[in-house]
Amino acid sequence: MSPVVVVLAAVIERDNRFLMTRRLRGTHLEGTWEFPGGKCEPGESHAECLARELEEELAARSEVGEEVFTVEHAYAERTVRLHFRRVTLLDEPIPQLGQDMAWVSRADLRSLELPAADQGLVELLTR
């Protein structure tokens, strides 16, 4: 069985819209929309990981809040344990990797092409 990759993702809500980014071409699940975040490095806390990823991807400092949802999902090439946490951005997000970014309404979350692992969170947010 493949090792479990721990991933942190930010649930950033503003004016009833969620910040979503699109996975880059050439990456795992390319082209799908996701809650921004990334892989946890060895020895890094969940909050440190998410703060670092948001700084790297969106040039934004953040306050990482409580966990909203956790899921473990097995893709063909890897298993991810995804921790979604509420985040407040302290800066205006600016994509740093050339990725698309959008503020998406709760109702429109279901219409996005998302990784399978994100579906449970979308269910929770759109109930």
Brief synopsis:
With 127 residues, the chain is an alpha+beta fold. It has a single domain, classed as Nucleoside Triphosphate Pyrophosphohydrolase (Alpha-Beta Complex). The N and C termini lie far apart (34 Å).
Report on the structure:
- It is built from three helices and eight strands, in the order βββββαβββαα.
- By secondary structure, the protein is of the alpha+beta class.
- The protein has a single domain, classed as Nucleoside Triphosphate Pyrophosphohydrolase.
- It has a four-stranded mixed sheet, covered by helices on one side.
- The longest helix has 13 residues.
- The termini are far apart.
- The model has no long low-confidence stretch (mean pLDDT 94).
Which descriptors apply to this entry?
alpha+beta; Nucleoside Triphosphate Pyrophosphohydrolase; four-stranded mixed beta sheet; 20% helix
Topology:
Layout: E1 4-11, E2 13-14, E3 17-22, E4 33-34, E5 37-39, H1 46-58, E6 62-74, E7 79-89, E8 101-105, H2 106-109, H3 119-126
How many β-strand stretches? 8
Number of DSSP helical runs? 3
**SS-based class:** alpha+beta
- State the shape: globular
Which fold name is given in CATH as the topology? Nucleoside Triphosphate Pyrophosphohydrolase
Number of structurally distinct domains: 1
Helix content: 10-25%
Give, in order, the helices and strands. Answer: EEEEEHEEEHH
Low-confidence stretches: none
The Cα radius of gyration reads 14 Å
